[in-house]
Design brief:
The protein has 97 residues and is an alpha+beta fold. Helix content is 24%, strand content 37%. A 5-stranded mixed sheet has the order 4-1-3-2-5, with helices on one face.
Length: 97
């Protein structure tokens, strides 16, 4: 019997604007990514935005992208710019600088 193939990996690159630094956004994003089994990274940018790259199955990536549009309870997300990119095979999810 053939086993179903896993869903194809996708990659999204996001830039999140608003009150998103100093509100535990990166730590919360990392926890959520790990819960969903999504790979990638998150970092603060000098311009006040948070940058996020996520790779994984389409459902999990979409769920994390939707979470990023809301963020943790102390965040106030004003906008999210999002671009689809080819997956690079990232493993794990980390906070970078």
């Amino acid at each position: 019997m053939d086993r179903p193939s896993p869903p194809a990996r996708i990659r999204r690159h996001l830039w999140v604007a608003g009150q998103v630094q100093g509100v535990w956004y990166r730590d919360s994003c990392q926890r959520e990514a790990r819960r969903l089994g999504v790979d990638g990274w998150v970092r603060n940018r000098a311009d006040g935005r948070v940058e996020v790259v996520i790779e994984g199955g389409p459902d999990a990536v979409n769920e994390l992208a939707n979470w990023c549009a809301v963020g943790p309870s102390r965040a106030e997300v004003a906008s999210v710019e999002m671009v689809d990119e080819p997956p690079e095979g990232l493993a794990g999810f980390r906070i970078t600088h």
